[in-house]
Amino acid sequence: MSLQSRPLEKSDAPAMVEIIAEMEALEPADEFWDVEEVLEEFDSPTTDAARGTVGITDGDRLVAFGSLSISQPVGVWKAGLFGGVRTDYLEQGLGRRLLDELTAGATAIRDADHPGMPGELKIWVRDRRPRLTRLAKSAGYEPWRYFQDMRHTLGDLPELPPAPAGIEILPWSPDLDDSTLVASNDSFADHWGSAPIDPVRWKSYFADSSSFRGADSLVAVDEQGVVAFVLVEEFPAETAALGFRVGYIARVGTARRGRGRGLATTLLIHSLHRLQAQGYEYAELNVDSDSPTGAGRLYRRIGFEPTHLNTTYGRRF
């Protein structure tokens, strides 16, 4: 066995999907990807394939992969780490090798592009992935924050509330996207770990993403523009694997000028009704367990129930 490391290439996408599927079969966590999603990651402004990815091969076979998801640097250089190892190559130190090589890559990118800027690396760990928990801890990562997965069964729903005075509830549309970004950056300005999202990254996350469901997303508009929003995704690979539709509420927020008016509650209930009408079986989201807006309590009040806990493990460099 001769294991070699190299940057990932788009031609690796099918093998990466296979590795993710093997990880899911070993430790089920409802994580499903298809080739189109992986290829979108290669084209994302958060990915630096040449400097921020690692593929480990055994001959011509990709047996492990890892990638940095690089945030827009605002005072701190930040990246998330994601990857996987084929199950028949576990217990051979490849997970730690990926982490070490990605850390070296992150340090090199930071030093070249933003010398002297403090750096942070984060790993999103689901409570159903104990192997990753052990790996993160062994590499010096510490738990920084907890996020609760929540699910709403789209059966009996709360009564549809009217829009507050001066507010119009509309489906998301491309002409409202810039205003939605402004509202999003404002609403998350006081949230842990958040930084402003630039327009290029924003479009890659939503409007240009194959998982984004603009027709199932809603915005609340006042005289200044979008003041609240509920943006929905659906993952085709997940739908195919589970056999039913799950509407994932990827981003929900209220600009600070609109807080205290019940806009988030109103918009979420409208969103649940819309998802039900479109044939979704569940709505899901995750929430910061220490959200400064008390979002978790809001979600419980309208029928969301906690399911699983996720931990952000981090380290500074």
Automatic annotation (TrEMBL):
Residues 3-164, 167-317 form the N-acetyltransferase domain. Pfam families: Acetyltransf_1. One of its GO terms (molecular function) is acyltransferase activity, transferring groups other than amino-acyl groups. The keyword Ribosomal protein does not apply. Gene3D superfamilies: 3.40.630.30. This is GNAT family N-acetyltransferase. Keywords: Acyltransferase, Transferase. SUPFAM superfamilies: Acyl-CoA N-acyltransferases (Nat).
